[in-house]
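TASK: fixed-backbone design
INPUT:
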């Protein structure tokens, strides 16, 4: 099971390969090299003086001076891959829609006109013993100055160094930045990322659901070894083993970002056939023309947890995914693979390590729980395994001319127009008269409860600081919550209701058998309970649900603020951020709260928010299940009792 390019605390982060890279970086004298660059600035080619010259050259549109370009992964057309520009000549509309997608900008070569983050002479200070970062622009090139502490795994302790930002990853929700380490084309990762929604810089570690840390590393070679395979097209890490048993990377890719050929395959012969009339077979792949399983595997090469059979073999669209890699599941085969990996590393408790890694990917019953792994969910769905559902049953990778949405609206999830409703999604196959009516849904027509997606694809997966829909299509049941800890669809919408309430409704409507429940599960809101005593992943999902408009409509919001306040003081950065966002969606002013502030400062900030709630007028009809009295406020004894039972197991969701 491979590491993901955005994992904050993966097991492989500390393996011998990464340690070797760090040694190479230091041995090559990166600090001295960059100090010389900063002093003489040879990276920037100044124009030859002439009467026509208006000043030094400004770099834009991802153009780099040759010296800098040699220090980052290179674009190299090979193996029949020739780049997306070759498609534009004949496929103008499709090329335009791809250009407006987030696939295109998944990885970009950076100049100041291409970054989301603010580099305009900005200083960022993080941690109790502050790490300081200075972000600047010089002639269109972005720079980061850092390294006053000895935590960055290179350079001289106490010295500050300046590095050019050469590449970025991400553009939809956040953006991470890469700089060259000087060892071939090996990259380091800036410890801070720009969060689009909040319009601010935050620690990279805070963007993922894992325990808080004040150690901000640069993860040498992360892009070269991992991100390159799914965040670029036809990438090859180019690792070279040196005499001292360490590695240097000379990575290459056919194109940065996820381009046309990532889904349609190499286009060289296709262009030759149609432009030059060459009499060769046209190998181009259109996923829409493939059988549903092969079509889904085109996406599954990246949108899954998988392990390549051979490290350098890439998945080619149109070919069976099993030819190049195994999709990982929570099964014995994957467990044995992990055991061998941990044994190689000398892990003391191998079984505990395997279980922890599984928990970072899957719920206890094997359902995938993280974003970007939708193909794993599809493989557990009868609509795919017994029917002909594929990714493009609901998603449209090229916006059609008849689609009235803006580019931004379409690009958000690349859903087919109208497929958020029953009329165009599930009823493609399921008879509308039988399923899209009140006799089946038991919810009024047009209500959020009548939407197939809310019951059969609930927001029980996590990624990118929010909950996302599960891509394993199931029916609501009590077992998923009672035995596996996964919030069920009923209680993710009806946040004020108990598990017993949901169980009785499912029994009444669909003949489910009631499961044995504790007294708390009978009397206390399932959401309130998870917010207080759940583990960090459960708390994150509930914090998100309290800001979800459809849940707020049916679950009176007057009682939620105290629970969100508790989560705004959570020990996990991601939980705090999600709780802050939902608190703001309740109409409370959270502008004075900083989710990465020091604990004592956060406590004071949260108190100010709670005062707003305390002084507000609350509904006189709050149910006892939410432990909030209309007159006195929170039932403190019950809240403290549940908090004392909090599941504090360590959680790292490996996005």
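OUTPUT:
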């Amino acid at each position: 099971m491979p590491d993901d390019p955005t994992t904050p605390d993966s097991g492989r982060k500390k393996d011998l390969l990464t340690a070797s890279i760090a040694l190479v970086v230091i041995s090559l004298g990166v600090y001295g090299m960059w100090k010389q660059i900063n002093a003489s600035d040879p990276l920037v080619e100044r124009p030859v003086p002439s009467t026509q010259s208006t000043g030094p050259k400004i770099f834009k549109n991802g153009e780099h001076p040759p010296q800098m370009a040699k220090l980052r992964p290179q674009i190299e057309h090979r193996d029949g891959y020739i780049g997306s520009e070759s498609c534009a000549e004949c496929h103008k509309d499709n090329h335009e829609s791809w250009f407006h997608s987030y696939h295109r900008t998944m990885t970009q070569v950076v100049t100041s006109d291409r970054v989301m983050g603010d580099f305009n002479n900005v200083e960022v200070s993080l941690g109790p013993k502050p790490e300081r970062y200075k972000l600047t622009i010089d002639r269109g090139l972005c720079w980061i100055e850092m390294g006053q502490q000895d935590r960055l795994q290179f350079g001289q302790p106490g010295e500050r160094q300046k590095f050019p930002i050469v590449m970025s990853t991400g553009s939809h929700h956040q953006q991470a930045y890469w700089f060259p380490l000087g060892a071939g084309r090996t990259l380091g990762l800036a410890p801070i990322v720009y969060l689009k929604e909040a319009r601010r810089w935050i620690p990279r570690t805070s963007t993922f659901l894992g325990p808080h840390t004040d150690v901000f590393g640069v993860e040498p070679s992360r892009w070269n070894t991992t991100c390159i395979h799914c965040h670029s097209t036809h990438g090859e890490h180019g690792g070279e083993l040196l005499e001292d048993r360490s590695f240097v990377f000379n990575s290459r890719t056919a194109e940065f970002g996820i381009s046309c050929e990532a889904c349609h395959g190499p286009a060289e012969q296709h262009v030759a056939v149609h432009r030059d009339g060459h009499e060769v077979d046209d190998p181009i792949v259109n996923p829409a023309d493939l059988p549903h399983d092969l079509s889904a595997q085109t996406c599954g090469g990246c949108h899954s947890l998988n392990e390549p059979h051979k490290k350098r073999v890439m998945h080619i669209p149109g070919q069976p995914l099993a030819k190049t890699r195994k999709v990982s599941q929570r099964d014995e085969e994957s467990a044995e693979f992990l055991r061998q990996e941990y044994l190689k590393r000398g892990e003391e408790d191998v079984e505990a390590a395997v279980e922890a890694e599984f928990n970072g990917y899957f719920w206890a019953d094997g359902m995938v729980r993280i974003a970007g792994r939708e193909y794993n969910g599809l493989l557990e769905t009868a609509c795919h395994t017994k029917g002909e559902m594929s990714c493009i049953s609901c998603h449209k990778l090229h916006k059609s001319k008849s689609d009235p949405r803006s580019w931004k609206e379409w690009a958000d999830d690349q859903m087919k127009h109208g497929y958020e409703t029953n009329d165009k999604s599930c009823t493609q196959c399921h008879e509308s008269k039988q399923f899209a009516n009140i006799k089946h849904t038991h919810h009024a027509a047009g209500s959020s409860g009548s939407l197939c997606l809310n019951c059969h694809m609930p927001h029980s997966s996590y990624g990118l600081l929010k909950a996302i829909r599960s891509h394993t299509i199931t029916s609501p049941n009590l077992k998923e919550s009672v035995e596996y800890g996964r919030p069920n669809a009923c209680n993710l919408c009806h946040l004020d209701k108990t598990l017993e309430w949901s169980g009785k409704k499912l029994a009444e409507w669909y003949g489910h058998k009631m499961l044995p429940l504790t007294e708390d599960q009978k009397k206390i809101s399932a959401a309130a309970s998870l917010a207080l005593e759940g583990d960090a992943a459960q708390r994150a999902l509930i914090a998100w649900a309290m800001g979800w408009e459809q849940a707020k409509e049916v679950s009176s919001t007057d009682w939620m603020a105290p629970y969100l306040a508790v989560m705004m003081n959570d020990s996990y950065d991601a939980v705090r951020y999600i709780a802050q966002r939902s608190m703001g969606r309740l109409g409370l002013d959270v502008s004075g709260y900083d989710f990465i502030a020091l604990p004592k400062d956060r406590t004071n900030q949260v108190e100010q928010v709670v005062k707003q709630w305390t002084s507000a007028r609350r509904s006189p009809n709050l149910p006892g299940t939410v432990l909030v009295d209309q007159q006195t406020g929170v039932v403190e004894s019950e809240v403290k009792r549940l908090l004392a039972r909090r599941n504090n197991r360590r959680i790292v969701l490996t996005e």
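COMMENT: The radius of gyration is 26 Å.
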